[in-house]
Design brief:
Blueprint: E1 8-13, E2 16-21, E3 23-25, H1 30-41, E4 48-52, E5 56-59, H2 61-76, E6 81-84, H3 89-98, H4 100-103, E7 106-107, H5 110-129
């Protein structure tokens, strides 16, 4: 577990690492967020990452850039990534206005995000077995 005050938490949940972002995250939090995303992506014993944004009330373009960067790093590592809400109206607006909502794998709830990732992991394991 990797808590940073109470705005950021990294916690394994089975084969998935859940990164929970809470309250307000902006430029001053960039280093901690980058470290948390890297820790999640490289966490041994897990195969996917869920960014839980349900309790996030504010984010700026810095955080969005970090999320897009970690998405690319996850793709390069062939590690599934999803973002879960429900999204605060300001966060949903940021995702919509920037077009990020069309390129990021979004789930309405944490459970839905976990199900999406488990499905992707099962599908990948099935394809590797054949």
């Amino acid at each position: 577990m990797f808590p940073l005050d109470n705005t950021l938490e990294v916690r394994p949940q089975g084969r998935i690492v859940v990164v929970t972002l809470r309250h307000e995250i902006d430029l001053q939090d960039a280093d901690a967020v980058t470290e948390a995303f890297q820790r999640a992506r490289t966490h041994s014993g897990t195969d996917a990452t869920l960014l839980d944004l349900a309790a996030l009330t504010f984010a700026d373009s810095t955080l969005l850039g970090l999320i897009l960067q970690t998405k690319a790093e996850h793709e390069q590592a062939r590690r599934p990534l999803a973002l879960s809400g429900p999204f605060h109206p300001g966060i949903q607006r940021l995702l919509d206005l920037t077009g990020a909502a069309t390129v990021l794998p979004l789930a309405g709830t944490r459970d839905e995000g976990l199900r999406q990732l488990h499905t992707l992991l099962s599908t990948a394991a099935h394809h590797e077995a054949h």
